[in-house]
Amino acid sequence: MVVAVAVFAATVLHAAILCSAGMTSSFVRSPQKSVDMPLDSDVFKAPPGYNAPQQVHITQGDHVGEAVIVSWVTVEEPGSSIVQYWAENTSHKHKAEGKFNKYKFYNYTSGYIHHCTIRKLQHDTKYYYEVGVGSSARTFWFTTPPKVGPDAPYTFGVIGDLGQTYDSNITLTHYEKNPNKGQTVLYVGDLSYADNYPFHDNVRWDTWARFVERSVAYQPWIWTAGNHEIDFVPEIGETKPFKPYTNRYRVPYKASNSTAPFWYSVKRASAYIIVLSSYSAYGKYTPQYQWLEDELPKVNRSETPWLIVLMHSPWYNSNTYHYMEGETMRVMYEPWFVKYKVDVVFAGHVHAYERSERVSNIAYNIINGLCSPVSDQSAPVYITIGDGGNIEGLANNLTEPQPKYSAYREASFGHATFSIKNRTHSYYSWHRNQDGYAVEADSLWFFNRFWHQIDDSTTAA
Ligand SMILES: *[C@@H]1O[C@H](CO)[C@@H](O)[C@H](O)[C@H]1NC(C)=O
Ligand SMILES: *[C@@H]1O[C@H](CO)[C@@H](O)[C@H](O)[C@H]1NC(C)=O
Ligand SMILES: *[C@@H]1O[C@H](CO)[C@@H](O)[C@H](O)[C@H]1NC(C)=O
Ligand SMILES: *[C@@H]1O[C@H](CO)[C@@H](O)[C@H](O)[C@H]1NC(C)=O
Ligand SMILES: *[C@@H]1O[C@H](CO)[C@@H](O)[C@H](O)[C@H]1NC(C)=O
Ligand SMILES: *[C@@H]1O[C@H](CO)[C@@H](O)[C@H](O)[C@H]1NC(C)=O
Ligand SMILES: *[C@@H]1O[C@H](CO)[C@@H](O)[C@H](O)[C@H]1NC(C)=O
Ligand SMILES: [Fe+2]
User: Fold this and answer.
1) Cα separation of 169 and 164, whole Å?
2) Residue 139 and residue 218: Cα distance in Å, rounded?
3) Among the options 200, 322, 415, 431, which is catalytic?
4) Is 322 labeled as catalytic in the residue annotation?
5) Distance between CA 459 and CA 357 in Å, rounded?
6) Residue 350 phi, psi dihedral angles, 5° rounding
7) Residue 425 in contact with residue 395, Cβ under 8 Å?
8) pLDDT tens digits, residue range 362-371?
9) Confidence of residue 11 (pLDDT cuts 50, 70, 90)
10) Strand 344-347 relative to strand 104-105: parallel, antiparallel, unpaired?
11) How far apart are the CA of 461 and the centre of ligand 4, in A?
């Protein structure tokens, strides 16, 4: 059954390459709504032991990949904020001390949320780390990235809009079992979907963090804020946007001279990753605008050939859901993306999958009428991958006809991997949840825009 489906999809894809327009996949899936896993599910179980650390997660802790932020929650009492860590096969345990915080949201009170940055790590090294004390201590591990450099191969996973349904669990399982072996997740926003519960029941922030611990305690997830992170509820007195998100998830924004945790950059191996915020001001003169204007010229493609941008709301989206929501930010920043030859933009928000050809729409100046996307080999490929499987279900109402720039679109849950081989080539593949772990429903070779600006489109112009 699974094999038959894969062969069928491959046949359709092959046919699409031969005709002139992009492809709307005819893959048929059941349209059932996604259901959140109940609170007593195995994936939400707290670890045993008094005050045992839970919800352990890591992310990059500096600009170049020599630091890691370790975060976790204790429930009974603050406990220790110390992380002990040691390189594989070494006996000396290093110690770093973090801090904890706590927040209230309406009538919810969080546990003790610890954040500790461990620094001066060696590249390409497996480290073990331990949090908690005594018999409740827990040990995890991660591998640091290679030193930043132009030909350092590296594989990123790409996940968005995950939530905590049975489908979310399937997406995460497929990512873990994907033979492409993602080393770091580029997460394009909308984490827990706790805000779908009455009073934004923040218990669902805790369950989400326990659910994803099995991946994010062992490899960093690079965070992007989505609309479900805003948690703005004046009706119940909650007027500080992003309160749960910023208390729980830390990012190294100061290392890229950003002034807020919603936009920042990191270098990792041969990639330069810029994270933007669809839900922070981005117009001219705003802090995000000024930061991005200063940031893009700093990217040195001889050092980091691959320029990747993450944001939540997509600019090129031919789904009727969230149609044109990304348009105002596109108008502000798209000329820069073309000028600086961004390789790929990953976005979420729309609960489906879509990949564009390289297009731009930057000629319009209000009076010249030039407002259609055109093929542009200096432009990024835009990928919408808000298909993690959250409670809101699939966005399965596509605009017709499919626009020319849209290379592939399908309303299915899944995840992708972006596997950088060297400064010229990166292999990208999207995996739908209904297929076997190794099946690629959509894939292509990316040619780097700086080093190898050869047409890599997959549909004839
Ligand atoms: C650590 O030890 C294991 C088992 O002896 C070995 O397979 C591995 O290569 C060692 N790693 C390093 C970095 O020396
Ligand atoms: C918070 O308030 C809601 C509505 O009054 C109630 O249903 C819920 O049980 C309360 N939760 C806590 C932790 O008090
Ligand atoms: C979630 O997926 C894991 C790994 O496949 C499995 O062990 C677990 O039972 C699943 N839990 C639920 C509630 O689906
Ligand atoms: C941040 O700004 C400082 C001071 O201007 C500068 O030395 C540093 O290189 C900048 N860092 C980055 C990553 O741009
Ligand atoms: C860019 O990176 C290369 C390789 O690391 C380095 O040799 C060069 O000096 C850098 N250029 C600038 C302007 O920093
Ligand atoms: C699909 O979207 C169009 C445009 O927004 C709308 O008119 C139509 O009713 C939608 N169809 C379904 C089945 O939701
Ligand atoms: C870069 O990787 C691609 C794909 O693996 C390969 O075909 C190409 O020869 C590599 N380039 C260099 C210079 O090694
Ligand atoms: Fe969203």
Assistant:
1) 7
2) 10
3) 322
4) yes
5) 8
6) -85, 125
7) no
8) 999 999 999 9
9) very low
10) unpaired
11) 42
